[in-house]
Amino acid sequence: MKRILGVALGILTAIGGFVDIGDLVTNAVVGSRFGLSLVWVVAVGVLGICLFANMSGRVAAASGRATFEVIRERLGPRAGLANLSASFLINLMTVTAEIGGIALALQLASSVYYLLWIPVAALAVWFVIWRVRFSIMENVTGLVGLTLIVFAVALFLLKPDWGALAGQLVPTVPGQETIWTYSYYAIALFGAAMTPYEVFFFSSGAVEEGWTVKDLLQERTNVLVGFPLGGLLSVAIAACATVVLLPAGISVTSLSQVVLPVAEGAGKLGLAVVLVGIVAATFGAALETTLSSGYTLAQFFGWSWGKFRRPAEAARFHLAMIICLLVGIAVLATGVDPVLVTEYSVVFSAIALPLTYLPILIVANDPEYMREHVNGRAVNALGMVYLVIILVASIAAIPLMIVTGAGS
Amino acid sequence: MTSANQQLPIAPPVAGRILDAQVHLMDRQVLDHDGVPVTTVDDLEVSGPDLDAEIPPGTTAPVITALLTGAVLGTRIFGGRPPSSRLIRLPWKDVAEVGVVLRLGIKGEPLDASWVERWVRDKIIARIPGGRHDPR
Amino acid sequence: MRNTPVSAPAAKSRPRLAARLWMLAVTALAVLTACGGGTAESVSTAVKDSSSAVATARIALRQDMDGKLTRAATSTTLDDELKEVQTSRSSVLKLSPATPEDRDTQKQALDVLDQCAAGFATARAALSAGDGGTPSLADGDKALAGAQDALKQLGDKVGSK
Amino acid sequence: MILGDLLGTPVFDADGGRLGRVADARFVLDGTPHQLMAEPRLLGLVVGPHSASSFMGYERNGLTRPRTIARILRWRHRGSFLVLWEDIALIGERSVRLRPGFTRYSTALDDRAQTRSAPEQGSD
């Protein structure tokens, strides 16, 4: 019984933890502009993150080594540092976006200007990292984030024409868009589903919670069930935007537009629930990204790290996270639009993805680390397919960004 | 290059375990006696030979004397070289085990390699309320 | 080997090449974004963005009247969308049209965008006046509907060119 | 000497012909025993066409999967060989010189790698 409960908890946490500000914004933008014609990308992205998280989790469980230790070991200091710089900057961008997301959601709830919420949000993030136990932190934000299911509920209450909606699932470029913007948002959506921080966090979390090979089965269940359900949640967000915003000629540029369809379908109660969900999801993601920035730095330089240690026993790790949060506050204080930061962060995530993916793929095949838990043949075949997809997305992203003027 | 599929001869067998510096040592995590991370192997110090001097046949082979860390990482990445006095050494005699990580047989806390960690802890982190609170 | 400057020249050229490519990409991006299209194109973008903003505001007002949206959410939405209109307006204002036609287009666009802004002002006033006050939310919606029509006309005109 | 300085240094034969770069240094744990571990003694240098990316260790540890990556990296390092300490005449700041009549050995780390990787030899 306890075991089943544990599995259920893990799955629910994975669903709630899947969606962050990047998924919320990108899916709503895509839904409002492209309908459901890009849903296939969510499917590709979800399968990719399952594969990637599963491999890095297995590496962490079998060898006790987290992702960035492996990257440094395999790439050496020079390529490793280039990788660290890219990953760290993108992660910092995501931290900024998530904190902005918390503040925007709180503004929607209170009408107090979001800039005033930013220090509050950042302080709360820091406090949780400083004090709260890892597993509690994970489970609470994940479970509360589950309330985002209200997007799916709202979709049903909107009573859309299901046949017409399903008809949109075919990958086609809508009339008012070009093939370039279509491709650009395909990459953005892919990057939103497969953000590298999820992998840093997932593998470091496995070390934090002291996973061993015995936990592999549960880990696999969490990922393979939780992430696809999280992906369905993403699709529900896009579908809501498709039903309410697309016909009105609205293209999403703010968080307030993301929640309008929920209010349309489920009224004030729905609105309240979705705001709780967004705060929980972005707060959870802010925790994960902040921790990830600490993890990447500490693992590259070999510092002591982990929430399972007293802060004083992982001093540089905690200092690094405090600095990251301060930088995030400083960036947001310039008045830069958090939604814009989010849109860029998901694309840059896609650009940087091969840097973390390749070393993990290689180490997952190395018996010195993995003993008998190396990748199977099928996983490797899929792994190579994804390596190609990830490379193509990464290489195409910048030219597409230029051609489309970042998707405008 | 002709690339005939010729097998190179296998090196004469040796008694001890073989370690390739890049593959097995460099950039690996170093843990102390209690499993606390100390640093990463940023470089290795070798006992010889004299540079740009002919090595007379029969000279005994150099040995690894210490793991290096600190500023040497920067110079390994960007080129150049810190003065020998600035190198932070972890003598090889303190290494207890080489695997996916290197384990030391001593406590990491008092080592030179830990001075930044100690400084950050004593001057900043431990002064914030709850800094010594056990999260578990 | 003390004081030698370079240790491993082998792999050095690669990061430098990558850095150069990166610089090139960034420069290209900067150049491309700096010289956007002509007046008609910019106006058409501004019209599209503002229409989206006004449409959002109308949905929010309607939901508020139907009791589906909280005051806080409605006012935040109006603020966000007003900001969007302001951004469009300042981008049109910054244009330097070359021909009399373009100057005319710019002038018309500014008029329409001002009408949008005025619509938002009415809507926000209605929101702060509360239930039964003047202007009412319906007034705000009417003002925004007028702005929406004007935007549509302008959009058709600019688009047909 | 700092080992990082040696890695990437060009290697020449006795007549000044270029053979490649130092890709790695091989040690064997049979030096003076300390209480914990023996001292690692320099057994020889791995010379390869590229010093970069040899870290993946593919050409030595016998990894064959994922197959495509393994193949690409093997191919990049075709012609890598191990030269023993006894065959090294001089280690300098900018070059390593080997003794006349040095022997190229396989870089494989164990038998398993040896049979699987079938290293290729450059022309002598």
Description:
- Chain A has helices at residues 2-18, 21-34, 39-63, 67-110, 114-131, 134-145, 150-157, 162-167, 179-193, 196-208, 216-244, 255-301, 315-333, 338-363, 367-370, 377-404.
- Chain A is mainly alpha-helical and 408 residues long.
- In chain A, helix 3 (39-63) packs antiparallel against helix 11.
- Chain A starts with a helix and ends with a helix.
- Chain B has 136 residues and is α+β, with helices and mostly antiparallel strands.
- Chain B has a domain at 21-47 and 62-127: Roll (SH3 type barrels).
- Chain B has helices at residues 21-25, 72-78, 115-123, and strands spanning 18-20, 29-31, 37-40, 43-46, 64-69, 88-91, 95-98, 102-104.
- In chain B, strand 2 and strand 3 form a beta hairpin.
- Mean pLDDT of chain B is 83; it is low at 1-5.
- Chain C has 161 residues and is an all-alpha fold.
- Chain C contains five helices and no strands.
- Chain D has a domain at 3-55 and 80-107: SH3 type barrels (Roll), CATH 2.30.30.240.
- Chain D has a six-stranded mixed β-sheet with strand order 4-3-2-1-6-5, with no helix packed on it.
- In chain D, a hairpin with a 4-residue loop joins strand 5 (88-91) and strand 6 (96-98).
- The radius of gyration of chain D is 15 Å and the shape is globular.
- Classes of the chains: A mainly alpha (408), B alpha+beta (136), C mainly alpha (161), D alpha+beta (124).
- Chains in contact: A-B, A-C, A-D, B-C, B-D, C-D.
- Strand 1 of chain B pairs antiparallel with strand 2 of chain D, so a sheet runs across the interface.
